[in-house]
Amino acid sequence: MGKKVALISGITGQDGSYLAEQLLEKGYEVHGIIRRNSSDSTGNLAILETGYHNPLKKVNLHYGDVTDSNNVDKLMRKIQPDEVYNLAAQSHVRISFDIPEYTANVDALGTLRFLESIVKNDLVKKTKFYQASTSELYGEVQEIPQTEKTPFYPRSPYAVAKMYSYWIVVNYREAYGVFACNGILFNHESFRRGLSFITKKVVNLAVKIKKGKMDKMFLGNLYSKRDWGYAPEYTEAMWEILQHDQPEDFVIATGETHTIKELVEEVFVNLGDSVRWEGEGLEEKGILNSNGQVVVEIDPHYFRPTEVNLLIGDATKAKEVLGWEAKTRFKDLVKIMVSDELKSMQ
């Protein structure tokens, strides 16, 4: 029996790069879809030696885009993957309010294109499909904590698009017998996160502030609560979901929740300082106790038109069925991210 073949959309992102590394370690032949970009977007894959003419290359990269049905179909026919991990998305919640149509095209219809290709090309008995669902589906939460049975109440174009993806996965599973699964992953972070995401932004800017490279950072809602885990553990869960003997949907989470404010405080603690807060509302400021420097101010630009105030997941099913549970907790996650950020700026 030859190597298992995996196709990853969104391979250049945080999750895609970790997943690619893990699948290679498991002996997979790994293919990834990348969009044409005038600037290099493969930084997270540097460790995998991806050059097209590099005889040591470990990942097979294909130009494509999940908004292009013909391209998705062509790649599926050519690669004939055993497993597809659809991680491609316009994944920034705030920005989805600015580009809702594009977000829907990528995050909703992109999923449909893969599923339809599996059915159309007679890959139902061969190809397993993983869909990157999100805790943002819960939005205005209907119960605490959130489980696989908690009703959805999406609060952004991103979350609404992901809701379509969730249900089209369920529909193709039930209608056509596709081995298709949703991983409802709560927030998961690492050094490889993009700078527009709050954890990476706070860590990166805090390190720059402490190094004297900038004065302050501007943030939005300090009081929204999130369930933050460590990305490599969550990509391992993706694989475990597809190894289960039947297709099911799973919440992947730590079961802890913390505010943005707590994130800021913990980051500065790891940098040998502490933050106190003064003022209220738009006038609230974070001030370093070491020298009285204002390092955090509020900018309404970062507020969402509809806010998600609290997310906390219950991953009991994943533990009982898959044997998966989060090992890295909030304080350890922040410690890892600050350490990696400091190393990158040496």
Automatic annotation (TrEMBL):
<keyword id="KW-0456">Lyase</keyword>
<dbReference type="InterPro" id="IPR036291">
    <property type="entry name" value="NAD(P)-bd_dom_sf"/>
</dbReference>
<keyword id="KW-0521">NADP</keyword>
<feature type="domain" description="NAD(P)-binding">
    <location>
        <begin position="7"/>
        <end position="337"/>
    </location>
</feature>
<dbReference type="InterPro" id="IPR016040">
    <property type="entry name" value="NAD(P)-bd_dom"/>
</dbReference>
<comment type="similarity">
    <text>Belongs to the NAD(P)-dependent epimerase/dehydratase family. GDP-mannose 4,6-dehydratase subfamily.</text>
</comment>
<dbReference type="GO" id="GO:0008446">
    <property type="term" value="F:GDP-mannose 4,6-dehydratase activity"/>
</dbReference>
<dbReference type="InterPro" id="IPR006368">
    <property type="entry name" value="GDP_Man_deHydtase"/>
</dbReference>
<protein>
    <recommendedName>
        <fullName>GDP-mannose 4,6-dehydratase</fullName>
        <ecNumber>4.2.1.47</ecNumber>
    </recommendedName>
</protein>
<dbReference type="Pfam" id="PF16363">
    <property type="entry name" value="GDP_Man_Dehyd"/>
</dbReference>
<comment type="function">
    <text>Catalyzes the conversion of GDP-D-mannose to GDP-4-dehydro-6-deoxy-D-mannose.</text>
</comment>
